[in-house]
Design a protein that fits this description.
Blueprint: H1 29-40, E1 43-49, E2 52-57, H2 60-67, E3 73-74, H3 81-84, H4 95-98, H5 109-124, H6 128-146, E4 151-153, H7 155-159, H8 162-170, H9 175-190, H10 195-215, H11 221-227, H12 234-265, H13 267-270, H14 277-290, E5 296-302, E6 306-308, E7 311-313, E8 318-322, H15 323-327, H16 337-340, H17 359-376, E9 381-382, E10 404-406
Amino acid sequence: MTPSQPHQPTLSELTGLTPLSATTTCRDPQAAYSELRAKWGQVAPVELEPGINAWLVLGHPEICQIVRNERLFSRNPHYWRLYAEQVVSPDSGLGPMMFPRDNAYFSDGDKHRRLREPLDDGLAGLDEHKMSRMIRAACTELIATFAPRGTADLVTEYAAVVPMLAVAGMFGLSTDLGHQLRQALIALFGSGADSQAGNQNLERILTNTIQARRADPSDDLATAFLRHPNLRNDFELQQSMVLMISAGYETTTTWIAQTLRLMLTDPRFAGRLRGGRLGIDEALDEVLWRDPPMSNMPARYALADCQVAGQPVRRGDALILGFAAANADSRVHTNDPWLEVGNRAHLAWSAGPHACPAQRQGRMITRIAVDTALHRLQDVVLSVPAEDITLLPSPWTRCPASLPVRFTRTGPIPHA
């Protein structure tokens, strides 16, 4: 007789797991990832919210294996067992990031290609020179509002506003609507109690925009999406706008904020604030390695029982892609700066069919924002100790909540 195999607990049966948010809210995320690796290997079970577990993929080759295999790992949340069986509450804060939407992010195969094409075509049709001038002008105008004070918060007054203005401009939205979008997206990415309300506000704004562009077309992405034959109804159109705006806003805000933090706190960069393009580009790339805009990316869903790095992944299990963890994988990255010059094998943009379509535009916005701030704010320094910088709550991103700075006053002092 063959001895029976010991029972391996399913993902849902595991208890006492590390919350995913513990990897994004801690001071040293790589230490948190290392603890998970030491206990579980390159694929670790984590808790998304009480009673809702998922696999966190920590290894670079393992993530590449998953994102390039649509036949085994789907982006479609309808295959998520806990969603299909209604274990996850309809009101869950995970909903806006993990429940199904009719856009390219949540699709595979032919449907993904159909819904991805409008994004690629819209981005290809942007006038990047015009966009660059608009972004630089917006950055300069924002700085002029606080330059006379000699103090500012470079997150709430700058890093979080520049992408909103850029994305709103691409879709032809007013500055006021852009600010409303920002508040909705902060709630959405927080995956907390107000996440669903934030998503509803975002969709309301975009539905109104679709109706306005149908009545009065313009030279913007909203009109381009409206005219694209691949988007078959207003819901697909709205959800494609949700994808472009939410991804573009959140990731760029985090990239700007983390790059400014790095250049203001790290001795390797702090002495080179006026050092020209090379210093900024090195900082941009280092952030993509060390603190990528999306630390943990939801999600892939197993279409069959399989093993990933020795873990028994069962059909319907959710797998979260730990980009920040994978970027520190010693199999692709070292701590020797001389060996890493020009190394862009990071997964900040993901890989495979779902790799970010807006890498050029995101880098342009971020680079202009960082460059403009560092060259227009004379003698800028943090006004709090670096260790006091806190992070916005989110299981997905590590965006500084604020970057209070002081600098030499310039421009007219506003009247009281």
